[in-house]
Design a protein that fits this description.
Blueprint lengths: L2 E2 H8 L2 E3 L5 E2 L1 E2 L9 E4 L6 H4 L6 E5 L11 E5 L2 H19 L3 E2 L4 E2 L4 E2 L4 E2 L4 E2 L4 E2 L4 E2 L4 E2 L4 E2 L4 E2 L4 E2 L4 E2 L4 E2 L4 E4 L4 E3 L5 E3 L5 E4 L4 E2 L4 E3 L5 E4 L4 E2 L4 E2 L4 E2 L4 E2 L4 E2 L4 E2 L4 E2 L4 E2 L4 E2 L4 E2 L4 E2 L9 E3 L4 E2 H31 L6
Parallel strand pairs: 4-5, 5-6, 6-7, 8-11, 9-12, 10-13, 11-14, 12-15, 13-16, 14-17, 15-18, 16-19, 17-20, 18-21, 19-24, 20-25, 21-26, 24-27, 25-28, 26-29, 27-30, 28-31, 29-32, 30-33, 31-34, 32-35, 33-36, 34-37, 35-38, 37-39
Antiparallel strand pairs: 1-3, 2-7, 22-23, 39-40
C-alpha cells in the first residue's frame, strides 16, 4: 500500500511543506526512518533525528520551527502524536482487510456451529457444538472454542487461545495468544478429613465490546452467574481474573496483576503491574492503584490514588515512605537516647 504526502495530508487536515507527490509505504520511528517511510516528531528531545532521518515524510506540529535544513516532506498538524496514532489505526485496519477469509484445513467445525460472512478460521482450530461466530471475525490457528460460545462481529482471536463453553464475546474484541477464557474458578470446599471437594463452576464469562485481552491472561468462569469484563477494558499480558469478578468499563489493568473472586472494580480505573486485589471487594469508579500494591479492603472514594501493601492513599503512602527510608537513622538515634537515659538512672554509675 502506497500513499502520497498529499493524500495523507488531506486525511489529517494538515498542510504540506515539500514534495506533495512523494510516496510512502510504511510507518516507522523517526530514528529508524528510511526512504518510503513516514514518521512523526512530537517529543522535542527527538528533534535531532529530523535532520538526519532518511524518512520520506515526517508529521510535525503546526508551530514547529526547524533549526536546520530538513530533507523529508513535512506535514503540519495540530497534534502529531494523535495524527500518527490515527494513521497506525487505519494502517492496521487496512492490513486486516487484506487478510484472507475462509476456512483452512485441517480444522474441526461442528455441523451445528453458525459461521458468519467473511470469517477466517485457521488450521488446527476446534469450533464446538452450537458455537456462533459473527461476520468479519478472524480465528487464527490452534484456537479452541467450546460448545455454545458466542463471538461477535470483527473479533480477532490469536493463535492458541482457549475459550471454554458458554462464554459470550462481544464485538471488536481482541484476544492475544494463549489466553484462556472460561476456565474453572478456584473453588474447593474443605472437608473434615483435611481434603478438598471441588465446587462445580457452572457460570460463564461475558466479555463486552471493544475489549483487548493480553497474551497468557486467564479469566475464570463464574461459580454461578457470570464473570464480566465490561466494554472498553484493556488487559495486559499475564493477568489472572478470578470467578465472578467484574471489571468496570474502560478500566486498564497492567501485567501480572491478580484480581480475586467476586471483586468488582469500578469503571475507568487504572491498575498497575503486579497488583494483588483480595476477594469480595468493591473498588470505586476511577480508582488508581500503583504497581505492586496489595488491596485488602473496599475503596469507596472515587478517582483516588492508592499505593503500597496494604494499599493506602497516595499522600499517606508517600509520608510513610519517607519515614521508612529514615528507619536506620531513627534506630541509631533511639540507641543513643536509650544509652543516655540509662546513664541518668539511679545507680547507673555503679
Amino acid at each position: 500500500m502506497q500513499f502520497t504526502a498529499k493524500q495523507i495530508s488531506g486525511f489529517l487536515n494538515g498542510t504540506i511543506e515539500g514534495d506533495p507527490d512523494v510516496e510512502v509505504a510504511e510507518l516507522s520511528k523517526i530514528e529508524e526512518g528510511k526512504p518510503g517511510s513516514l514518521c512523526f516528531l512530537s517529543n522535542p528531545k527527538y528533534e535531532n533525528f529530523l535532520y538526519s532521518t532518511n524518512a520520506s515524510v515526517v508529521i510535525v506540529s503546526r508551530d514547529f520551527s526547524a533549526d536546520q535544513p530538513v530533507k523529508p516532506t513535512l506535514i503540519r498538524v495540530d497534534n502529531p502524536y494523535s495524527a500518527f496514532s490515527l494513521l497506525l489505526e487505519k494502517y492496521n485496519e487496512a492490513i486486516k482487510q487484506e487478510l484472507k477469509a475462509g476456512i483452512e484445513e485441517p480444522c474441526f467445525i461442528h455441523p451445528s456451529a453458525k459461521i458468519g460472512n467473511n470469517v477466517f478460521i485457521g488450521a488446527f482450530s476446534y469450533i464446538g457444538e452450537n458455537v456462533t461466530i459473527a461476520d468479519n471475525s478472524r480465528i487464527h490457528t490452534q484456537v479452541y472454542i467450546g460448545a455454545g460460545t458466542e463471538i461477535g462481529e470483527d473479533c480477532l482471536i490469536y493463535p492458541g487461545v482457549k475459550i471454554y463453553h458458554q462464554c459470550k464475546i462481544g464485538r471488536q474484541v481482541v484476544v492475544h495468544a494463549n489466553a484462556v477464557i472460561g476456565s474453572d474458578g478456584f473453588g474447593f470446599a474443605p472437608q473434615p478429613d483435611g481434603t478438598y471437594h471441588k465446587i462445580a463452576q457452572i457460570g460463564n464469562v461475558v466479555i463486552e465490546d471493544d475489549v483487548e485481552i493480553g497474551a497468557n491472561t486467564t479469566i475464570d468462569r463464574a461459580t454461578m452467574g457470570s464473570t464480566i469484563i465490561r466494554s472498553g477494558v484493556k488487559l495486559d499480558n499475564l493477568i489472572q481474573i478470578a470467578h465472578n469478578a467484574e471489571i468496570g468499563a474502560n478500566t486498564v489493568v497492567a501485567a501480572q496483576s491478580g484480581i480475586s473472586g467476586s471483586t468488582k472494580i469500578g469503571a475507568n480505573s487504572v491498575i498497575g503491574g503486579q497488583v494483588g486485589i483480595a476477594g469480595h471487594l468493591n473498588l470505586a469508579r476511577g480508582t488508581q492503584i500503583g504497581a505492586k500494591a496489595g488491596v485488602n479492603s473496599n475503596i469507596t472514594e472515587e478517582n483516588k490514588q492508592w499505593h503500597g501493601s496494604p494499599a493506602q492513599p497516595l499522600r499517606d503512602w508517600m509520608k510513610a515512605s519517607v519515614i521508612f527510608r529514615r528507619l536506620p537513622d531513627i534506630e541509631k538515634q533511639l540507641g543513643v537516647l536509650e544509652a543516655r537515659i540509662s546513664s541518668l538512672l539511679p545507680g547507673a554509675d555503679k
